[in-house]
Every structure is written in C-alpha cells, then in structure tokens.
Amino acid sequence: MKLLAIGTVAFDAIETPFGKTDKILGGAATYIALAASKLKAEVNIVSVVGGDFPGSYLDMMVQNNIGIEGIKVIEEGKTFFWAGKYHIDMNNRDTLITELNVLENFDPVIPEEQKKSEIVMLGNLHPAVQLSVIEQMEEKPKLTILDTMDFWMNSTWDLLMKVIAKVDVITINDAEARQLSGEFSLVKAAQKIQEMGPKVVVIKKGEHGALLFNERKIFFAPALPLEDVFDPTGAGDTFAGGFAGYLAETGDLSFENMKKAIIVGSALASFSVEKFGTEKLQELQSKEFEIRLNEFKNLTEYSYDI
Predict the structure, then answer these.
(1) pTM of the predicted structure, to 2 decimals
(2) Distance CA 233, CA 272 (A)
(3) What is the mean pLDDT of residues 275-304?
C-alpha cells in the first residue's frame, strides 16, 4: 500500500542535558517518512520548505526511497524553525523559538498520482490543513491516521472535531486523550474518542509505552528500557511512521496486525532517541532493526502454567 505523510519538514535546534545542536533536520513528516522507509512501504511526503533548505537533505530522502514530489520549495521563503530545551527527566521541555515562516501559509497540494494512496498519515498540523488533505483524496483511503495535540484542542476545537470525525485512527498522548475526552481513565477516554469517529485509538505514554484500543479490545506495548536517551524530539512521529509504515508494508489493517505495528513503531522510536534529530534513523541498518525487534519480543515473552 502507498503511504502519504503530510506534516512539517523543518529545522530544529535542540538542547538536552547531554548536549546541544545548531540547526538540524527535523519536522513531523521527516520523522514519519524516515521511519516508514525502514520498512518496504512506498512513502511520499507533502510539505513545504524555504529556499534555505539544503538540497542534500532532499537527496538523503530520495536515497531512502522517500517520494519528495509533494514537498514545495518556496525559494524566497524560510523553512519552519523550532528550538527547544529539555529538562533533566527528558519528559518536559521549554520551547525557546518557533518561527512558522513558509508554514504559516501552507496550502497542501497532493500530487495527482498520490491522491489514491491507501494510507494517509496526517501529521500534527492545523486542522484546516488536515481537512484540506482529506478533501483532496480522489478515493477514501483504506486508513486515515491523525496526529494532533492540545494546542489545536484549545484553539480550533470545532474544526478539529470535523477532522476527527473523518479519520480511522487517532494517535495522541495520555494527557491529550484526557483533555479530548474529559475522562481521567484512559479506558473511558478511548471509548469516548471512538464515539467521535476513529475506530482505533492509540495513546502514547512516552517511556511507559503505548496503548491500542479498538472497540472493547485493548493491547499494550512497552517501551524498551534504554541505557542512553539523548534526544526525544520526534519520537512520537517516529512511532507513528513505524506504525503506519508496517501497515502499508503488510497491507493488513486488522487489529491483530496493528498490535505488531505498535511494536514496530515502538522499536523505531527507541532508535530515534539514541542520537540527536534524525541521525540514528538515517543510519539505521536492517540487522540492527531486526535485533531490536527481538529485544521487544524477549521483553514481554513468558510462559505461565495454570
């Protein structure tokens, strides 16, 4: 299945207790597509960058079998830029700089040959942009996945509800799930959110794993305990890209296969945090990935005799 990823392709400047970077490659769509590219899915990006965006980054994407026809380059503009500083526990961060630049007037245009993509991954963007993408698809995708955040819940509630009603899967963190549903219990929160439209709810809990809900069925995937976490930026997008990429690779959208997709997404996210930005995803080899997937299997495998 073809996977279409809509989101930011950007510059990030990151500071953690373990170091800091100047401007490096970032953006939700970048992480999503790089993660999906580690699988056998055909993945294409729709985004916008400025004339300051290095051609070497675009070349790297092509070398990773990522379609970039949908990335619009506005030569006279500047690329979206975000800078942030993480606290010692790495779960909290302060945003230091946000420069929307060309993203401020982003009006996505889906290339004709991608308008029949079977899976659409709507990265964290303004709901109006996400809705525009849904409306441009020539055929209803077999699966539409939405990522959103508390900012859009606070500022564009009605429009966000229109988007949520049109998607099949929503991925949000536990605090956002509680805010969206008004329920503290994540089980009740997932049930409420399913009533809004999505048949599947994925609740990300960072270093504590992820929950998958479909009707009354629940699956939990742990996060792999790591010796070193250098940069959690993009981990959630990497997780989503691995999840969507595995479903696109296998062509199986059943709940049982989504369980495997959750593990694949978690494994890729565990690599992403080991170096700054997208560096680890760019250099990741298939053998490393295979070993990591086995580590996840061993993490949860046990026998029990009644």
Answers:
(1) 0.95
(2) 8
(3) 91
